[in-house]
Amino acid sequence: MVRLRKRLVMKRMVFLLPALFLIACGGGGGSSSQSSNGTPASNNPPQPGPDITVSLPENVIAGPLNLTAPTDSDGDTMTLVVTAIPTSGRLRKGDGQSVSVGYNIGINSNIFGPTGLNFTPDTDTNDNNSSFGYFSYSVSDGKVTVTRTISISINPTTGNCSLSVNSGPFTSTWPGLDWESADPESLGMCPDEINQAMEYAFKEGNYTGAVLVIKNGYIVSEKYADNKMPTDLVTSWSVAKSFTSSLIGIALDDGFISNIDQPVSDFITSWKTTDKESITLKQLMTVRTALNLLDGSDLYNAPDQLKISLERELIGQPGEKLYDYSNSDVMLAGEVIRAATGKNAGAYLEEKVESIIRSSSEWWSDSLGNILSYCCLDTTPRNFARFGLLFSRNGEWDGINVISSGWVNESTSPAISGEYGFYWWPAGNNGFTALGIQGQIVAIYPEVDLVILRFSSYTRMGDGSTIRTSSNYHSTTEPIDFNNNTFLNLIYSSIK
Question: Domains along the chain?
Answer without folding.
Answer: 1-158 (no CATH), 234-278+342-492 (3.40.710.10)
